[in-house]
């Protein structure tokens, strides 16, 4: 399965999207538009990011292997600082587990789609070097400002749970 790459006409950047889980239908176009708008708002238009949607079992495995945490988390990001892809700066990969995100969304009183949008933006911020564990709230403030931007919510839904699953 090859990732779809969406090239925005306003910037040479691209967002690569790969769906490796089956519970949620993922709109590759919407994910790419959201990611490109977030990068543009952060002054990083022109960069490449890979967003991979995985099931909880795969997320748990990656979390255990790379961070030593034996549970499925909702999002992980892996920065590839200094890497280039097709002549563009490759920031890295973001893994999102929609099923885990949906469980968190239910707990927080929001929708799975809204939570997944937050996680994509969260992952992009980590790829750009922000760290909410050490920056006294700076990353969370930037994330909040981004998520209030109308352009980010003008993007059609990213993920919809499939029926009969």
Give a description of the structure.
- The chain has helices spanning 28-41, 56-67, 98-108, 112-127, 138-147, 150-153, and strands at residues 4-7, 14-19, 24-26, 48-53, 75-85, 88-96, 159-161.
- The radius of gyration is 15 Å and the shape is globular.
- The chain is built from six helices and seven strands; from the N terminus they run E-E-E-H-E-H-E-E-H-H-H-H-E.
- Strands 1-2-4-6-5 form a five-stranded mixed beta sheet, covered by helices on one side. A two-stranded antiparallel sheet has the order 3-7.
- The chain is an alpha/beta fold and 165 residues long.
- It has a single domain, classed as 3-Layer(aba) Sandwich (Collagenase (Catalytic Domain)).
Overview in brief:
The chain has 165 residues and is an alpha/beta fold.
Q: Considering the protein shown, what is the CATH homologous superfamily?
A: Metalloproteases ("zincins"), catalytic domain
Query: Would you count the extended β strands for me?
Result: 7
Average pLDDT number: 88
CATH class term: Alpha Beta
Unreliable stretches, pLDDT < 50, 5 or more residues?
1-13
The third-level CATH topology is Collagenase (Catalytic Domain)
Series of secondary-structure elements, N-terminal to C-terminal: EEEHEHEEHHHHE
* Largest sheet geometry: 5 strands, mixed
CATH architecture: 3-Layer(aba) Sandwich
Structural class: alpha/beta
Termini separation comes to 22 Å
- State Rg: 15 Å
Dominant shape? globular
Chart the SSEs and their pairings:
Elements: E1 4-7, E2 14-19, E3 24-26, H1 28-41, E4 48-53, H2 56-67, E5 75-85, E6 88-96, H3 98-108, H4 112-127, H5 138-147, H6 150-153, E7 159-161
Parallel strand pairs: 2-4, 4-6
Antiparallel strand pairs: 1-2, 3-7, 5-6
Helix pairs in contact: 1-4, 3-4, 4-5
